Amino acid sequence: MEKGFLDIGQACPSIIINADYATKMNFTGTIVDGYKRVTAITSVEAVEALCKVQKEAEAKNLTIKIFDGYRPAKAVAFFLDWGKKPESNLEVKNLFYPKHTKEELFSLGYIATRSSHSRGSALDLTLVDKKTGKDLDMGTRFDYFDDLSHTDSPRITMEQRENRALLKGLMEKHGFKNFVKEWWHYSLVKEPYPDQIFDFDVE
After folding, report:
1. Which of 10, 21, 96, 141 has the smallest CB count inside 10 Å?
2. Structural domains in the chain?
3. Which of 63, 185, 38, 56 is closest to 134 using CA atoms?
4. What is the mean pLDDT of residues 59-65?
5. How far apart are CA 66 and CA 124, in angstroms?
6. What CA–CA distances, in Å, run from 65 to 104, 129, 139, 184, 197?
């Protein structure tokens, strides 16, 4: 692992690590280049802030679940290459982007050609109810590419809006900012590597 990065699960063991891109359960339908193990890492600074969020979440009988942390540049290139290939998995398309073509996912800004994740301080995450073990209802799944996933979407229920606001409040309190098109995406405001792109594997 690159110096200046930490394994989130080791630093804060109570956080749930999903690491969707290290599995086939993601919008590409396959394991993404650069993901060698179901784990999540990010910069030391982001991990330290995230552990503070987790402490507050646990006081509310909740826990953080991580979908993705640091993302190698090769994974972003993998997404771009995937976007150029003909549609071949309608089941995956219906789960993640039923209303759009692959090309539209890039032109509308749902998938970036350069990702803030590759700078090492962006996270995709949600909250889980510790009593039930279920994700809080946020209105959509992770990586659901649609305006329904916009954090302030007017089309979600009051409960979903409150759950998104709860996550947003916890993250902003500890130095993160939300990406308005994705309720799950947060970046550390004072990121340590704002001008650097990394490409080491997640392993």
Report:
1. 10
2. 5-188 (3.30.1380.10)
3. 63
4. 98
5. 6
6. 28, 10, 16, 10, 25
